[in-house]
Design goal:
This protein is mainly alpha-helical and 42 residues long. It is 83% helix and 0% strand.
Length: 42
C-alpha cells in the first residue's frame, strides 16, 4: 500500500486540498449572500 512519493508532492497536494476546503468553507459563510443575491436578481 505504501508508495514512494516525494514530500514536496504530498505537501503540495495537502495544501491544495486544504485550500479548496477552506475556500468552500468561506464560500458557504461569505458567499451565501452573494449566491442569494444572484438568484434573486435572476
Amino acid at each position: 500500500m505504501k508508495k514512494k512519493v516525494p514530500n514536496q508532492v504530498v505537501v503540495s497536494h495537502l495544501l491544495l486540498s486544504m485550500g479548496i476546503l477552506f475556500r468552500m468553507f468561506l464560500g458557504e459563510r461569505l458567499g451565501n449572500l452573494n449566491f442569494l443575491q444572484r438568484k434573486v436578481s435572476k
